[in-house]
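Whether sequence alone determines local backbone shape is best considered at the level of individual chains. We regard such an encoding as a compact summary of how the chain folds. The sequence in question and its structure tokens are set out directly beneath this paragraph.
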Amino acid sequence: MDHQPAQRLSLRAARRRTAAAMLVGTTLEWYDFFLYGTAAALIFNKQFFPELSPTAGTLAAFSTFAVGFVARPVGGLVFGHFGDRIGRRNTLIVSLLMMGLASTSIGLIPNFDAIGFWAPALLVIARVVQGFGLGGEGAGATLMSMEHAPAGKRNLYAGFPQMGTPAGLVVANIVFLSISALMPTGAFESWGWRIPFLLSIVLVAVGLAIRLRVEESPSFSQVVEEKSVARFPLRDALDAGFARLGLTLCAVLANSAVAYVFMVFTLSYGTKQLDYNKDFLIACVSGAAVVWFVSIPYWTGVADRFGRRRMFVWGSLAILVWCIAFLPMLNTGSVVVAALAFLGMGLIVPVTHSVQGAIIADTFPASVRYSGTSLILQLGAILGGGLAPIISTALVGESGGSAGVTVYLVVMCAISLSGAVALFRRVPEGERDGEAVIAEGRLAGAVD
């Protein structure tokens, strides 16, 4: 009896289950992360920094937001080390637990009026745990999905966890907006904002139930079978060379910076400087994220069929151009023009975001891929996204206008565009994804 069709069906089902589990897990973790960003823009200055001026309070709230990004590289390195040593699956389960418990605890922290200094101190601690957990999520989920991918669909499968970013944003904003709409403004700002954070514990239970059914990555299983588990994965990952690692980092900076300006900073800027309705801005960001979410499979399909390099470069150029127009469009005060500005972001950002995880992961062989990918992803997150709301708020506070923010974004986009062009010229086009390892363990691209 021929069992091959049944085996192929079982393998296909396992691959799809893994991709779905990574998407659901990353959605839940990004829900927690973005929920904090929305609350930092709209609530935390009043709850945890009431003695500061509105601008200073917002800066302080965004500073606690940035603390999570500082913790992300540390979490990425720790989770990356164990992910390369003991496997992807278990580390991803731990990261999901850390994020969920930290977010739930934020909903329980008393405000400044109740416990004084300890309120923002506990908020920072919870945020550090959030960032630490998310630091292990981004790279691990991308690897788990990509390393289960069938031939010719590497970018598509690596893109499923990337979809968790806009999905988490949409879920966070919908929950935040719905609870805000159902409650009187005073009650929501006093205690209702805690409900979305407390819901994290329910979402984590769902995510764990799904992730516990996922099998270990075939690539890592092969590493174990061949007894080639790296003793110090990060050290070996650095063999890629400073030039290649630096260019890869530069290539992904803009996407993170632009995304956090349009997802987080605009909520504060639009309500305080331009008098847009808070609910309207959240709806615009959510709508853009929906477009972002649904377009990722299209772009990863294009990358699998025609190659991702040219697509990434043109996408980087498109982001640069749209950043020139984005804030001036918001400044018109027109809700129609503002909605179009956000829609443009939702269309353009996923061009590069959809494949950047795969581009980074394919820099490293399987034995050190988690550590190397985590390093680049999390450094890019802190240098790009983590600082973007703070820098943007400070620039607006200094000048009273958005021109400085536009210049800042254009500079970040120029750095990424230049980095991508230089990276793709340096690394041979024919290099086989993630497997072109030079003798004695040195990585592809390390030798000129």
Remarks:
- Confidence is low (pLDDT under 50) at residues 430-448.
- The first helix runs from residue 4 to 42.
- The chain has one domain: 10-441.
- The chain has 19 helices and no strands.
